[in-house]
Amino acid sequence: MKKLIILGSTGSIGTQALDIARANPDKYTIVGLAAGSNAELLEKQAREFGVKAVALFDTKAADELKIKLADTNIKVFCGADGVCELAMLDCDVVLNAIVGIAGLRPTLCAIDAGHTIALANKETLVTGGEIVNRKLKEKGVELLPVDSEHSAIFQSLQGAPKGSLKKILLTASGGPFFGKTREELQNVTVKEALAHPNWSMGAKITIDSASLMNKGLEVIEAVHLFGVPASQIEVLVHRQSILHSAVELSDGAVIAQLGTPDMKLPIQYALTYPGRDMCFEQLDLFKVGSLTFERPDCGTFKLLPLCIEAINHGGLYPTAINGANEESVKLFLEGKIKFLQIAELNEKAMNLCENKKDFTVEDIFAADEAARQIVRKAVL
Ligand code: NAD
Ligand code: MG
User: Fold this and answer.
1) pLDDT tens track for 155-213
2) Quick check: CB of 176 below 6 Å from ligand 1?
3) CATH code at position 129
């Protein structure tokens, strides 16, 4: 039995992780669950899986949950500190599926507690990659990627000799706006941006997929996970989302992982690694027919080259563009800015970043807040 803690259990990745646990009751025990503010669903999940503890970031919702769970022995933690406390409870693996930089501290706490991390929360590595990697080494803790592309790269590297990785081939679906010009993107709606052709995901990452910010964040994530510079990462638009990414090795061999566009496989692999388990959905290559690859349009989708610029500058630049993006995506979803303004605002905030080379977690949160303020001031 593997003891799991799932952070972000009410979201897209979190609920799929619970589907895996539900299908394998003999393999997983859920020790703890955490979410942002959805007390109703968290209560249901807590009762179904008989967890020891839960946490809600929103303190008002946590108070409600305490009342709802009063007839049980389930402990309710609250606030950002409560989520961190939950992440440190006794377990084998912490799956971090929180959205945004809010996932950084819980990851650090789980590493401190010596837990293996299954990481979906890419913002953890985008903002705190250097600090996380140092801590993993110090504590001898393993971090396994859940993001489908990074899981594919990780799977493709199994058995590859150390030092043989020459290039990462990071695939992108291209999102709902593939092939559109800047002119055509002027007035796209929230609904259109949320209509991803291949993947069903949370709102924030879906908008990031439409703007290619998601691919930019994933280049930064790959730099930290696999220890290669951005210059050794090539982004390929692959409209079918079947080849989830590949590696090119020193002898020219290209090794890839293919599968249906379903997050259950990468989530499960992070939970069973190095083992493999049940299949949720079989890939039928005859049905797929053909796989195509194209270069991304970096002139129209500027956030991809901007993220590469951010990681090449290093320091707090990735935090600045990530923080600005979290804020501008929120404003776009609220209908307060247009789609193309996301990139404009992110670029502005990144250019105003006061960089530091040796930075602390506090510096990261200060840079995040500064970038968010630049976005808010430019709009409101
Ligand atoms: P989502 O919006 O569906 O779910 C986010 C979860 O985080 C929810 O449970 C929410 O309650 C919780 N949450 C939000 N703020 C919180 C806080 N401050 N403290 C604690 N919990 C909080 O998002 P998602 O699509 O599941 O994505 C989660 C993460 O996984 C993101 O970093 C995303 O980039 C990454 N990811 C998602 C997918 C996907 O298919 N959905 C694929 C690859 C990577
Ligand atoms: Mg991905």
Assistant:
1) 999 999 999 999 999 999 999 999 999 999 999 999 999 999 998 999 999 999 999 99
2) no
3) 3.40.50.720
Handedness of CA 38, 41, 47, 53 (dihedral sign): negative
User: Is residue 268 located within the same domain as residue 184?
Assistant: yes
Largest CA distance in the chain: 62
Average pLDDT, integer, range 265-276: 98
CA angle 167/107/205 to nearest 5° reads 60
313, 338, 364: which is the final residue of a domain?
Answer: 313
pTM above 0.85, yes or no: yes
What mean pLDDT do residues 17-46 have? 98
96 lines ligand 1 (CB under 6 A): no
Residues 110, 250 within the same domain: no
213 lines ligand 1 (CB under 6 A): no
Which tokens is 34 given?
């955490």
Q: Whole domain around residue 124: which residue ranges?
A: 2-145
Cα 113 to averaged position of ligand 2 atoms, centre (Å): 27
